[in-house]
């Protein structure tokens, strides 16, 4: 009974889907070095909306008090955050 692990590639794809939903536009393939605030002109509100979309998609909840903005600056950082959250769930 091995449970498949949530991978960084899956996290990147889920982030792309969430961004497309929040931004209501096509999102190009993501690169780990992309700065989400600069590349997609996100602000703190749209970043929170993206997190809420991911919570709904993936079935987890995060206490906003425990968030560190540095985890959300780049695609790689955000993807790693998602993998860690899913592993802890």
UniProtKB/TrEMBL annotation:
Transmembrane segments: none annotated. It holds the Pfam family PP-binding. It comes from the Bacteria. InterPro entries: ACP-like_sf, PP-bd_ACP. Gene3D superfamilies: ACP-like. Residues 6-86 form the Carrier domain. This is Acyl carrier protein. It comes from Saliniramus fredricksonii. The lineage of its organism: Bacteria, Pseudomonadati, Pseudomonadota, Alphaproteobacteria, Hyphomicrobiales.
């Amino acid at each position: 009974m091995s449970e498949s692990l949530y991978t960084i590639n899956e996290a990147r794809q889920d982030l792309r889907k969430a961004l497309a939903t929040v931004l209501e536009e096509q999102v190009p393939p993501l690169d780990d070095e992309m700065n989400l605030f600069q590349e997609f002109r996100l602000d703190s509100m749209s970043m929170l909306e993206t997190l809420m979309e991911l919570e709904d998609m993936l079935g987890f909840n995060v206490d906003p008090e425990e968030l560190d903005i540095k985890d959300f600056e780049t695609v790689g950082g955000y993807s790693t955050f998602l993998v860690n959250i899913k592993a802890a769930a």
